[in-house]
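New to this. Please check this protein:
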Amino acid sequence: MGKWRYGVVLDAGSSGTRVHIYRWLNNDAARQKASDAQLHSLPVIETDKKWTKKIHPGISNFGEYPHQVGPEHLDKLLSHALRYVPLDEVPNTPLFLLATAGMRILPERQRKEVLDEVCAFARNTTKFKLPDCDVHVQVIPGETEGLYGWIAANYLLGGFDQPKDHDHGKGHSTYGFLDMGGASAQIAFAPNATEAEKHSNDLTLMRLRTVDGTPLEYKVFVTTWLGFGVNQARERYVKALLESSADKELPDPCLPADLKVEVTKEGKFMDADDEDDEPKPKAAAELVGTGQFSSCLHQTFPLLEKEKKCMDSPCLINGQHVPAIDFDVNHFVGVSEYWHTTHEIFEDGHKNKAYDFKTYQERVDQFCSQDWKNIEKGIKKGKWGHKVDEEKAREVCFKASWIINMLHDGIGVPRVGIEDLGGGKNTTKAVIDSAKEKGFLDPFQAVNKINDVEVSWTLGKMVLYASSEIPPPSEEALAVGFGSNVPGIPVDFQFPGGVPQAYESESNWHRLFLENPQRIPGFFIMVFIILFILGLILGKERRNAAKQSLVNIFARKQGKDPLHRRRARGFPAKLFSLGGSGSSNKDYERVDLEDGEAANEFELYEAYLDSSDNEMSDSSDGSGSKVGRTSGWATPQIKSELTGSPSYFGSTPGGGEVLNQAAGLGLGPPSTFDRSALLSRTYSRERIKSRANSPKRNKGMNKVDE
């Protein structure tokens, strides 16, 4: 494993899929280079603009033909990722495809088929780390998307790492998070202490871990409003207009003056410039813009559905429960449409300004009241920035009215410039200056990037994953992830990688060798040197004594079976002989010949050697005599092939040949043979044969006789 760890996240939205690549230092490298402040911070996640790529359309468009999602869609994204992730790090790089609103509306069968194809294609064409497809490839709920966004925003703003520098009062240092897409909107924030205690069952418990292993724990409220994204809100608005009148031409205050647009009964715009060959639906009516923004605000207010019954008070919109928000300490950042609609349309000279309700409403009112022809001329001249085209200019009036209503009448963000924010703000000069630098002193600020890094929920996912890879300070430490707000690990707890990560300390042999295989040869060399030096220090006699002790220990462990006992002698004998394999001091294993059973077992073992052990033969073709290489009392006689008489290399006919045969057997020259041992062995052999007359030993003696 190298210095850097990598992670790949595919954000599968309704209009397209975007690949994000992130990297961070592995924990060992991060700790070596970290200062004290960095040790108490979360891992530093890096990314680059060129590491991101988006393609259209979204994977939800492959519901009818899921087998094409791999070659026609994923292939481009995975190829892009493989360009920037080092080849040797690919197997260690987790891959996630997390789908949002677009896939949520697909039928269950189609959704499953598309996700299965995504996983199969990724596994078959790449080596990215993909152990559990149910976790790595899935449709995430809006609440999870909002929680990831909350992590990303606070990570980039420093709410986690430098809480003292972001003290909003009452011990509160984190920021709230607002996200709005085309289909849904999310909110995530940490309530103040009073509300957190009152609504503890509604909160999500989230745990992170800093570089030095210190745990961080937060209790966050997060919810999603389906159908409250700008596109679906627009469709609900148009449907309401159609239902209000049977006329084919309807005035619309949310369109620039004199702009005419045809719409379907589903509330969608019909684009006159669409060159698609597919048959177009019949227009239900034509909307004529009046450019009256104040009337647009009034007509979009009912879309909040604040009149719905609140089953669990308090509620904000759509009858959905949300704990009371203390805007003295809860400062929110908004992304996606909150940014595009409040800043992008007025890009020149305003993109770095904080959101000001009064100023913003004045600018939108001025824009929407213009005649459409004048707006078209301004677009061609780039008056509102290079990103503003006719489609965005046509939609901005409704989007602006919807954003304003959601923020102020829905969520309750104070109208900066009009409403008094009240007391309770920490107004120390250091905090004010710090907030002014980033523009986050107000209750709401729309953002796109912080420190040149895009505020994306995919970043929050990777922060959580990187944090989970940090070893815990102890075995009792709780895992990184999120779940219900209960002590310990709740049943619904979600681990960032799907399963708890297995951590090993630096003293763990498994971790030591698997992560550092280059250390293995050095380790064994070191062990050999230590044993060699130890052997020299002990001396010959102590080595033999230690060797014999180990032999006895191994023999006892192996039981009574002579084959096991004899084999057990090999390893310790070789280990402690330390080059003394040629020594004449042989230790023989003793057998109590007065014990009939033990003697019988030993004789059977000799027969086994004679009949089956090919290594004991000195004949190249296997036809020669087989000699059991045993020791002590059990050493058999060697029969000369020339005379057929037993001989221990004495004076026999053809003695030269016998000597040659003896040398071939590796038994050494006759001059080294101890004749006193010869007599005692021959005598012992006779004793064995004489005792073989017992009926219970006939079988064993027959084998020896043979």
